[in-house]
Every structure is written in C-alpha cells, then in structure tokens.
Design a protein that fits this description.
The complex is a heterodimer of chains A (598) and B (492). Chain A has 25 helices and two strands. Chain A is mainly alpha-helical and 598 residues long. In chain A, helix 2 runs parallel beside helix 15, helix 4 packs antiparallel against helix 5 and helix 14 crosses helix 17. Classes of the chains: A mainly alpha (598), B mainly alpha (492).
Chain lengths: 598, 492
C-alpha cells in the first residue's frame, strides 16, 4: 500500500508533466505567481513557478525516471519492515518534490529552496540505513560539501539583489537589467553560481561526496545520480545562460573544470572494485562532460546529455542493484563473474547501458556525446582531443566492469552461486523500459548531417536557450569526427574484452595504487581542511574561551573579592588603629589644602 | 485592547499558584494561566492588525499612561508596536511550552512554577514598557528568578553558574541604569521612550551614553565577549530555565539594544556600528567553531545560541531597514527554535540521564517523536528553507549586503560562512544522537514523549513552520516598526 501511494503520486506528477509539456510545446510558457514569500524594503520575492521549455523537459525527466525508480524500489526494499518502508518512500517523494520545486521556481530563491531540499533528502537517504557511522559520515559529507556550494550560491543571490534588486528570471535576464550589470559583476556572480553548481553536481573541488553517497540504498543512488540532485547544477547554468554568455572568463572556468573533472573521475573509475563506486565515478565524469558542453556555449547539448544520461545511468544503477540483489548484497566485483547466464535480463540491460554510455551509435549516448564533442571541436581543438580521450576512458572502464561482472568464471561463495537468481518483474520491467529509452532516447537530437531538422531538442529549447551562431564545421569534417570517435571507442571495447575476459586480480602498484585510492584527494582534504578547522575549533574552545575570556570574567570576580578582603582589614574593631587612621587622614587633608591654596 | 491584562494575568496566576494546595493544582493553574496568556497574545496580534488595517498609524497602539511619581517624572506608560507584539507572542509561546515540559518537576513544585511565571511577567512587562524606568524595573524582575531557578533546580556546577549568570547580568543592568540616568539628565528629565525619541540629544553625549546601554543590554543577549554566562548558565539550568533564558531572556537584551540604545541614540549607533558588526561577526563564526568542539548537548545549543544571536546584533549594526527587520525576525525565530532545542534536550536527558553526545546513538528507533523534533529543530538551526531560521538569516544577509562597501561585505561573508560550520556541528550532533545504531542496551526500554512534552514540541514547531513557510505576516508586523527606527537613524 505504501508503495502504491508512493509510486502513484509520482505517476500523477508524470502525467501532469506530460500535459505541461504538451502545453509548452504549443508555445504556452507561463509564470504562475502564488504569494509574496519574502518582502523586505523594495525587494519582493514571490513564490512563483515558471513553466517553460527547459523546466518542462526537466519535469519529464524527473518524474518519468523517478517513477520507474519508485516502482523498482517497491521490490528492492521489500525486506524492510513496514515502518521503515514508509519512511523510505516519504523521503523518496520528498526528494522528487524538492527537485520539482527547484526546476519550477520562477526565481533564484525558490530554486534555492528546492536546492536545499534536495540536499536534505540526499542526506536523509544516504544515511537511511542507520547501520554504522560510516554511512552517517557519508551523509554528513554530502550535506556539508553541498553547503559550501550553497554558501557561494547565496552570496551570488545577494550580489544580484544588491546590483539589480531582483532575483526572478524574467527580470534578471531582461536586456535592461543585463545592461545594468558591469562585466566584473557578471563574472563574479556567474563564478559564484558555478561554485554552487559544482557542489550539487559534484565537480572539482567539491566532488568527493558523490562516490561516498553510495552508502544509501541502490535505487536512491539511481535517483541521485540520474534523475535528480546532480542535474541541478546543469539546470542552474542552463537556466542562467543569458548571464554566462556574457562572461567569457566564467565560461572558460566552467569548461575547464568540467573537462578536468571528467578526466580525473574517469581515471579513478578505472581501478575501482565496488560496482557502485565505478558507476559513481562515471557519473562524476559524465557530469564533467555536461559542464564542458555548457562552458563552450552548447547549452542544449549539455541538457541533451542530462536527458540521455538520466536514462542510461538510471538503468545502470538499477541493473547494478539487480546484480547486488542477486548476489545477496555483494558489491565487490572481484567476487562476481560469469553472471551473464544466470541473470540474463540484467545482463542485457546492463550491456545496453554500457553501449549507450560508451557512445556507440546508434544508442542514445552517442548522439548527446557527439553533440558535445562537436561543440568542443568548434571551440578548441586541444580540449576536443582531451575530451575524446576521456570518452575512450569511459568506454574502457564501463566495459571492464561489464566483463568482470558478467563474463569469466564465478568467483563468489558456493552459497551465493546457488542463490543467484533473476530479480522480480517490478525490478526488471523498469530496467527494460529504461533500456529502451537508452537505445532510442538519442533520436530527439539527430545531427543535421543525418537528417534535416533532426535536432528537435535544440529547436524545442530555443525560446529559453537561444541558438548559438558560431563557426560551423562542414558536414564532412563532422562525419569524419564521428567515425573516428566511434571506431576508437569500439577499439577500446575490444581491448577491454581481451584484457578482462579472464580476470586475475593482483595488488596494484604505482599509478594503479594511486588511482585505486582516488588520487588521495580525500586524505588531502582531511589534512588541509578538516584537521586544521577542527584544531581551530579546539583552540577557540579550550584555549580562548576557557583561558582568556573565562579567566577575565572570573578575574573580575576575584579582583572584587580581593579588594573587599583588603578593605575589610581596615575595619579591625581596634580603637587604636581607627585613631591612627584618623590622625593620618587629618594630616593628609591639611597637606592637600595647603597645596591647593597655593 | 487593554494592555494591563498582559501583565495582570501573570500576576493573578502567580498569586493563585502561591495559594494553591497541592502540586496538581499548581500545575493546572500554571497551564491554564499560560494558555490564557497565549490566547491573549494572539488576540493582541489580531487587535493590532485590525487597528493597523483601519489606518491607525500611531507609532504605538493601545497606549496607557499613569503617573507613578510626578516629582521625578516617572510614569507608568505602556503601549505596543509591531515589534512588541511579536515579542509578546514569542514569550507566550515559550512560556506555554516551558510550563508543559516542567510537568514532572517534583522538587518544590510551587516555588518553581511561581518563579517561572514571575520571569514571564518580567518579560511581558519589559516588552510593552514605554517608560525607561518601568522597563528597567521589569528587566530586573526577570533576573532574580533565573538565579534561583539555576541555583535550586539546576544540575552540575550550579552554584558557580548561577553566580556567574546573576553577576554578569547584574553588571549589565548596572551599565543600563547608568545609561538610562545619563539619558534622563541630558534630555530634559524624562524617562519616556516616545518623548526621548523626539528630543535631539547632542552627538557627543550620545557617544558617551550609547556604549553603556548597548553593552548593558548586550550582556543579556550574549554580545561577544560578554557571552560566557550563556554556556555555563544553560548547562546548569533546569530545562524550562534554559528555555526561558535563551528563548526570552536573551531577547530582552536584543530588544533593548534596538529599542533603547539604537533608537534613542542614533548618532551613537552610527559611531559604534562598525564595532558592533565586528563583534557580532566574530560571535557568529567563533560561536559556531566553539560549538563544533562541544560534547554536551546543552553546551552545543548554548554556543550555537551565541552564534545565532550574533545575527540579530549583526542586523542591528548594519543599520538598514531590511537588516533590522531581519534582526527582529532572527530574535523571534531563534527564541522559538532554541526553546524547542532545550526542551528536546531536556526530554532526552530525562530518559537517558546523559547529555553526552558520544553516549547516545540510534534514538530514532527508540523515541521517534522526540528524535524527529530534534531533527526538525536542527534543520531550523542550520537554516533550511521552510523553517524560520532560513527566512531570518537570509533577510539579515540581504540587508547587510545592501551596504555597499568592502568592510560590510567582508563581515557579511564571514557571517555567512557560519552556515557551513553550523551544518557541520548540527549534523554531527544529530548523527551521533538519533541516527546510527543503539549504543546502550538500556535505551531500548525508553519511552517516547508524553502528552505534555508532545504539546510543548508541537506548539513550538508550529511557530517555526508558520514563520518559515509564510513569513509575510510577521514581516508585515515588524517592517513598519523597523522603518520608524530607521527614520530616526537616517534623521527623517
């Protein structure tokens, strides 16, 4: 029952999203104003929603993929007791709610509310299984790293308010207001916003929370990584494209950070042995590609990749969940192997996900990645080569994962061997639907080369994301580029097949060890941020608070005590001393008077 | 509406408590009294809004004026504006909750409730006073009960804490008294707030008097570095004592800083604004870092209060209408939030007999209601949208950001950095207490909240949510009053 309600409401949202989409498609985008949320001075921030092409596309992705994940969850979380089951679904629904708020808000403050809500839900769901403190730490890390980004987001908001006195999209992006902003202001605002986006969408330097977020239940990982949370940063920048386009510096920062993240995460993914960790780093890497696209001005290509990525990454996570389910909770790929025969549906859908993410035509990932690579090529050839290299790494680590898990000999325990079974329909059907979407999803953005007017997505988004007039490469070059990248990817897949068909695991050494330990970034952060800040807190608390301030306060008390003790001595009760004092005082008075007269 | 009711009702309740025969009577009389007071406060809110809606633009409404001592021009003058109404409302919520959570006090029940009600009386009187003499009188009424509440019903180093608190607050009072007398003698022998606000006090005199008043009231509201009574006082106080201290008493100070010091001495405020900003920015971040290191739940909330109250003072120091509105919002928000925090800590302590974070764990499984409330109040503290803390903090920040120079920007950014540190310590505290596995086997037998505790929590959560989701009503209450203060500062 809980599951039915939980899924039903998301399904209803999906149906409504379709209706919104159809309306918007006919050109009826609108802003709905509900009430004044914050009203201070001249500034009025209203609680308003904006339904346009960009938000309706995100609505479809969030509710559509979200619904499939909900359905999957019913079966995946079956063993939970009823109370916990309810808690799980309420968090999941809250997650969808926050995300919808985020994309529907008509101003940055509403976006921020959703933004924080998403952060909260990820915290709740990552730490869902109160099992041990590691999970708790992962949840804390996710929230706190996001908070650092949120701080930057907030400051960007204040900056906007101080400069143009508004945060609603329609006013911020209007020509008059953009003209009022100095270019340095725009650069600062966009960089601050990007820092916020880097927190939510796991980019350098704030990416380390995402892989740790794997501590949550697998469907939650699918939800965080595919349909919701991490796409928030992309949405924010795509939404603010009018601002970003005015600052070349910010664009470059976004592009280079994105590319660097894409490569860094891909190298780490090469050596991970936890099935979910590999997928997590691949998410970080793919998000890097999306930012790269945004940074070179190909906003719609970035959004396109959000969409296809939502399909195949949700699929991969759900399939990975199915593998974990079949293996009785095992996540270490070194203890799997040869699963292709035992769990056929999972295998096939996982294979489809791998082909899609690797970018092999004609699966969806090919189209979106190709759109990004093409835009990068137009922008800068060096970036293109590095991006292509990253794409090859993607293909390599994904197929490494596939081959290690599904081919070769079974390496688990005998008990696991006997119990390995395919997941029930509630789990496999969402996977199959996502697999179909992963295959066909790219067809909404067929490049001009193949079909005139095939890039429907860009045309659809045009009212929000103006078409970029830039240097267009010739169709021949485009075809050659596609051929090169596709052939290289297929080559890498074959290479991976020979390497991992029969796997032997050995201790990694040298670079391999560094990669396995994620370039030691977590350790580095621990050393340069966490420890010093803790020390500072300890210093404030034990030294400054206790010694300086408290001693001062107590000192004042002691001084008064001391003073009164001394004064008390004067009143000894002995007549002799009183007389002495009298005489001394009289002498003093005479002397004083003598001097004053003079 | 007759404002005398607001102070008459607590007096009657206190008398009835004294005359009652047994514990049951004491409790029920206190509960009914505080409930009636809550109703009165809500009625005041509506009456006030009605008057304003009917275009009654007088600065203070429902004024009453009686001569107390004509020779010295001391009058009993009361009246309310939006700020007072909000503070009265806050007080009534906290008192109600405080009475409810003290239901199981066994030791000297009658005296305990009598002191609680006396404290509340002091607060109500303080917030509606328009004459500095009676304002000071009510302020003092609220100090003595605190000393006794901690000294008698407290725990831990209660004598030390009670002494420290009482002496520091008395020191603050002494400064206030000097300041008030300074005002009286320089501004035509008057204690009247309204007439003082229309007198032009020479700038050099303002520069002398302002520090007395601001630091004096600042001690009450934990102005850095006069905050050390807060952690010790809270940690030793009984639950309701902590709630009143942080929820009401610290607000007396903030209210005084704004209404008396800043409003009456605008030149002084301008002169010292930068110092206020520096001190409060330090308090915000310093308090947050100090909280990170605390292991005792009460100390955690005490230091986090130092940090949160810093936002109020920061807002006042910024001297913009938005920032001052934000400061007031923060006072109300923090009052509700911190009272709730202490209430929950008390509930947990009553059951587990420990306040050490490290000794808890997994309470969500054992007492879901209390843990959920703990969670909500934690989220409010770290400024999650939808709860009151977010609205208040963001308003302060927006107001601060309006002042367009590097100094104010840096101060605001330093203050804003606390949202990250706050998240660190709140999540740590929540994580170690309510999440995770149950560490102590004995905890498995513990019971969830009783009816009185539930109601106490519900009342305060309702307040937090009402401000967080739809802050408009409170904003509309505070903003015009903040504007009046701003007008005087900008010399209109």
């Amino acid at each position: 029952m809980t599951g039915v309600i939980g899924c039903g409401v998301v399904l209803a949202s999906f149906v409504l999203s379709i209706m919104v989409f159809l309306q918007v498609k006919d050109g009826h985008s609108q802003v709905v104003d509900y009430f004044n949320f914050i009203n201070v001075g001249d500034l009025k921030i209203s609680f308003a929603f904006q339904l346009d092409q960009l938000s309706s596309l995100f609505l479809l992705i969030i509710t559509g993929v979200g619904f499939l994940i909900h359905v999957y969850s019913i079966s995946y979380m079956q063993e939970e007791n009823p109370g916990q089951f309810g808690r799980y679904f309420s968090f999941l629904n809250l997650f969808i709610f926050s995300m919808l708020l985020l994309v529907m808000g008509a101003n940055y403050v509403i976006m921020f509310i959703g933004w924080e809500g998403v952060g909260l839900c990820s915290y709740l769901l990552i730490g869902y299984w109160f099992k041990n403190n590691e999970f708790n730490k992962a949840a804390n890390k996710a929230f706190i790293m996001n908070r650092i980004g949120d701080l930057a987001f907030l400051i960007a908001l204040f900056w906007l308010i101080a400069k143009i006195g508004t945060v609603s999209y329609s006013e911020v992006f209007s020509a008059t207001n953009l003209a009022r902003l100095k270019s340095s202001d725009i650069t600062i605002i966009t960089l601050l916003l990007f820092t916020g986006a880097a927190g939510k969408s796991a980019q350098i330097p704030l990416y380390t929370w995402l892989p740790d977020a794997m501590a949550g239940p697998t469907p939650v990982s699918a939800l965080i990584h595919a349909a919701t949370m991490v796409t928030a940063g992309i949405y924010m920048i795509a939404r603010s494209n009018a601002l970003y386009s005015l600052s070349q510096i910010s664009m470059n920062v976004v592009a280079i950070t994105g590319l660097a993240t894409a490569i860094l995460a891909a190298t780490i993914a090469l050596k991970q042995n936890d099935i979910k960790k590999v997928l997590a780093y691949s998410t970080v890497s793919q998000l890097g590609y999306m930012f790269l696209a945004l940074g070179v001005g190909a906003y719609s290509a970035g959004v396109f990749h959000v969409m296809t990525h939502a399909f195949f990454k949700a699929l991969l996570f759900l399939a990975a969940g199915s593998v974990i389910h079949a293996m009785g909770g095992e996540q270490d790929i070194r203890k799997m192997g040869g699963l292709s025969k035992k769990i056929k549906i999972t295998y096939i859908t996982f294979l489809i996900g791998c082909i899609a993410i690797a970018g092999i035509p004609p699966f969806s990932g090919f189209f979106s990645k190709d759109a990004i690579l093409l835009a990068v090529f137009e922008h800068n050839k060096i970036l293109y080569v590095i991006a292509l290299l990253g794409a090859l790494l993607t293909a390599f680590y994904m197929f490494r994962l596939l081959f290690i898990v599904f081919t070769g000999a079974f390496r688990g325990t005998d008990e696991q061997k006997d119990h390995t079974h395919e997941s029930p329909g509630a789990m496999t059907i969402p996977m199959i639907i996502l697999a179909i979407l992963s295959v066909l999803g790219g067809l909404v953005g067929i490049p001009e080369v193949f079909m005139h007017g095939g890039d429907k997505l860009t045309a659809f988004l045009a009212p929000v994301i103006p078409l970029q007039a830039g240097e267009i490469v010739s169709h021949n070059t485009e075809l050659i580029l596609m051929a090169i990248s596709s052939l290289l990817v297929i080559g890498v897949v074959v290479f991976a097949w020979f390497l991992f068909r029969k796997t032997r695991f050995s201790e990694s050494k040298g670079l391999g060890k560094v990669l396995e330990n994620k370039w030691y970034v977590d350790e580095l952060y621990e050393k340069i941020f966490v420890k010093p800040l803790n020390k500072l807190g300890a210093f404030f608390n034990s030294v400054f608070e206790r010694s300086v301030i408290d001693d001062l306060v107590n000192g004042v008390g002691r001084l008064v005590n001391y003073g009164s003790r001394q004064l008390r001595l004067l009143q000894s009760g002995q007549v002799g001393s009183y007389v002495l004092l009298m005489v001394v005082s009289m002498v003093l008075i005479f002397i004083l008077q003598f001097f004053i007269r003079k | 509406m007759n404002l005398l009711l607001l102070i008459g009702l607590p007096v009657l309740t206190a008398l009835a408590v004294l005359l009652s025969r047994n514990k049951q009577q004491v409790k029920w009389i206190s509960l009914l009294g505080s409930l009636a007071q809550l109703g009165l406060a809500i009625a005041l809110l509506f009456a006030f809004r009605q008057e304003r809606a009917a275009n009654n633009t007088a600065q203070m409404l429902f004024e009453q004026h009686y001569k107390l001592f004509a020779a010295l021009n001391i009058n009993f003058h009361i009246g309310v504006d939006g700020i007072s109404v909000a503070m009265v409302l806050l007080t009534s919520f906290v008192v109600m909750a405080g009475v409810l959570v003290s239901w199981n006090i066994e030791k000297m029940t009658k005296e305990f409730y009598f002191l609680l009600i006396l404290l509340a009386l002091g607060a109500y009187g303080f917030f509606i006073s328009l004459d500095l003499f009676i304002l000071f009188f009510f302020l003092e009424i609220s100090v003595i009960p605190k000393y006794l509440l901690i000294g008698i019903w407290g725990s831990g180093r209660k004598e030390y804490s009670a002494n420290k608190l009482a002496l520091m607050l008395m020191g603050g009072s002494a400064l206030i008294l000097v300041g008030i007398l300074g005002l009286y003698f320089t501004a035509g022998h008057s204690f009247d707030l309204l007439s003082l606000s229309k007198t032009n006090i020479p700038g050099n005199i303002q520069h002398i008097i302002f520090p007395f008043l601001f630091i004096g009231f600042g001690v009450f509201t934990a102005l850095f570095p006069f905050h050390t009574w807060v952690p010790d006082g809270h940690s030793s106080a009984p639950t309701a004592g902590s709630m009143f201290l942080a929820g009401i008493s610290m607000k007396l100070g903030g209210y005084g800083c704004l209404r008396v010091a800043t409003y009456l001495l605008p030149e002084g405020a301008k002169e010292y604004a930068n110092i206020i900003i520096i001190l409060s920015a330090i308090a915000i971040l310093y308090g947050a870092f100090a909280t990170m290191m605390q292991k005792d739940l009460k100390y955690i909330n005490a230091y986090s209060s130092v940090s949160h109250v810093g936002f109020s003072l920061l807002g006042i120091g910024m001297l913009t209408q938005t920032a001052i509105t934000g400061a007031l919002l923060q006072m109300v928000s923090h009052g509700l939030m911190t009272a709730l925090f202490f209430a929950v800590i008390g509930m947990i302590y009553d059951r587990t007999h420990t306040r050490m974070v490290a000794e808890m764990g997994g309470l969500m499984k054992v007492m879901p209601f209390i843990s959920t409330v703990f969670f909500i109040v934690g989220l409010c503290s770290l400024g999650l949208p939808g709860l009151s803390g977010f609205v208040a903090e963001i308003t302060v920040f927006m107001g601060s950001w309006q002042v367009d120079d590097t100094f104010h920007r840096i101060a605001t950014i330093i203050a804003a950095m606390s949202i990250v540190v706050t998240a660190v310590y709140i999540l740590r505290a929540i994580g170690q207490t309510v999440m995770g596995p149950v560490k102590n086997e004995n905890f498995l037998q513990l019971k969830d909240a009783t009816w009185n505790e539930k109601w106490a929590a519900i009342i305060l959560v309702a307040g937090i949510v009402a401000i967080g989701v739809a802050p408009g009503w409170l904003n509309n209450l505070l903003r015009p009053a903040a504007q009046v203060i701003m007008d005087r500062i900008s010399g209109k």
